[in-house]
What does this fold into?
Amino acid sequence: MANYMTWNSNTEVLFACEGVEAKDWLSAFANIRGDLNIRVSPDFGACEAIEFAVAWNNPRGFWRRFPNLRAIFSLGAGVDGLLSDPELPADIPIVRMLDRALADEMAEFVMARVIHHHRLFHRYEFQQSRNSWAIHKPPTANKRVVGIMGMGALGSRCAIELKEMGFRVRGWARTCKELPDIELFYGWDRLADFANGCEILVCLLPRTLETEGILNSGLFSRLAPGACLINAGRGAHLVERDLLDAIDLGFIEAATLDVFHEEPLPERHPFWTCSAIRIFPHVAAFTRPETASKAISDNIDRILSGKSPVGLVERVLGY
Ligand code: NAP
Ligand code: GLV
It folds into this structure.
């Protein structure tokens, strides 16, 4: 099949997502509207014609060849990969993925893992490997402190769901915000107060120069003794050695990791054999073509009518 679908008008969109099957995206866009010409990389045709692009995992320098790009839409919520390209043209608007279905899926993952750690299921998994029968009684949810780092589209959605389940939820973000019944902390000055006494820590931050390495021994030492960690942000948030040390020292009892410095996680990585760590291969939340194509299509309309797209990335902040 030719990687080129033609509809009525001449708004040209490039789908350039390495490792992502284009077929479902093409039919999702076709179901929404018939006025886009979607080309699938590497069959660009004339680079000058491309106005919009949907991007993921592109090689360095890839975007230099499209002189008339009006926006790049990231397939994912995280734009760290796109922004890490030193040759990314400075004047092209970058738009991150904001999609309700993505937040729904992240909330499912986080709820599942928070409940897993809250109910101390990690202990039973460990016991099974030793044929051991011992009962552990957790506190009730209203006594369990869950802290969420990153209170954006995903973090705030998870916070609301966890609050609904009865947990004591607190959040940390860069700027001030309010959510009913959720204790919010913002800025570096309040990070230690946020972390003090957290029993389950969830990281849903974007990877930026400021947030790299934020999950480190200093932070772990503030948590309640034997706390659990869930990292579904980016691998670069975690100082891996510090996690292994914190587990050895009992600061951290168990961890759920969905993202890693190097993906796939190398076969010989010590995380594979650490019984306190559960590894997920970056599957916390998927971008689904059926809903995400609508988010992109709405943003194309906004830009075509002179409005700012929803989810516009602030390049200086890195998210
Ligand atoms: P978002 O809406 O941009 O929210 C980011 C949040 O992080 C905001 O609350 C922001 O604070 C906060 N933040 C950023 N820099 C900070 C800093 N220096 N100090 C304190 N808070 C800071 O992003 P999102 O859509 O929720 O996505 C978050 C991340 O999740 C993505 O970037 C991606 O890395 C990850 N993700 C992972 C998966 C997966 O499958 N594992 C799937 C999707 C996304 P303000 O609110 O004050 O701006
Ligand atoms: C996935 O990791 C995303 O950023 O959406």
